[in-house]
Amino acid sequence: MPFEATANSNPSQSLPASDGEFIVPRKPLPPQTEDVPATTTGTATATAAAAAAATNPEIPSDPPPPYKLSLKDRLRGFFVPLSATAAASSQGRICGLRRGYFYAAVVAGVVAAGLIVGLSVGLTQHKSSQSSSSGTITGAQHTGDLTYFTPSVGACGYTNTVSDHIVAISISLFDSFSVGANPNLNRACGKKIRATRGGKSVDVKVVDRCGACAKWDLDMANSAYDVLADEAAGRVSVSWHWLTSN
């Protein structure tokens, strides 16, 4: 005779079926929960984040956008080094140097410039002294012709070149200073003459005698002649005085 389940029966026990087979009851399933849509969860999370940001201002609600330099910032970056240089200057530095070193460099530069200028003036005066040596004019002024020649060994026994400021006077004038047969001992040798022409002057030393010259003519080495005239002019007039050494 088949068995029937009663209220006191254990549901986990097998029950026989009507045809003599046993029926195994299923275990109760756990309670099911409804899935929350992703959109709902995301919205809830965003809402919670917004609420937290509202209550705590330190928490940003959204990430900051990428930073871009404005024109003002770029100009500030350009002028900052200049302001830093000015600040360094105000703190005792000029052009990257301490103020004392800077002034010392300026003074040294001024002194060096003065030395250069002085040296240039000295060289100029030295060059001028070759054409205008010291001496005092004595006696009357003489006028004659001026020519030039290439010197070598003159009647006074001096060996000279075209770069020397020397002169040969006429034989008649040279012999008037003679003290004997030896021309090297002539008193005219080494005497100074200042020749003038057209506002220019040059001082020359007597070292020779000129056979083709008239009494007051002068025959100079090329360098001395060039001070008074152009060599292309040839024979020109000249005025001159004897000089006494100071």
Summarize the structure in words:
There is one protein chain. With 246 residues, the protein is an alpha+beta fold. The protein is built from 5 helices and 10 strands. The strands form 3 sheets. Strands 5-9-6-8-7-10 form a 6-stranded mixed β-barrel. Strands 1-2 form a two-stranded antiparallel sheet.
Provide the fold topology.
Blueprint: E1 15-16, E2 22-23, H1 38-55, H2 71-90, E3 93-94, E4 97-98, H3 99-131, E5 136-149, E6 166-170, H4 171-175, E7 192-197, E8 200-210, E9 218-221, H5 222-228, E10 236-244
Parallel strand pairs: 5-9, 6-8
Antiparallel strand pairs: 1-2, 3-4, 5-10, 6-9, 7-8, 7-10
Strand content: 15-25%
Radius of gyration: 61 Å
Largest sheet: 6 strands, mixed, barrel
Total beta strand runs: 10
Poorly predicted residue ranges: 1-9, 124-132
Helix content: 25-40%
End-to-end distance, in Å?
175 Å
**Approximate shape:** rod-shaped
Strand order of the largest sheet: 5-9-6-8-7-10
What features would you highlight for this structure?
5 helices; 246 residues; rod-shaped; alpha+beta; six-stranded mixed beta barrel; disordered N terminus
Provide a brief overview of the structure.
The protein has about 250 residues and is an alpha+beta fold.
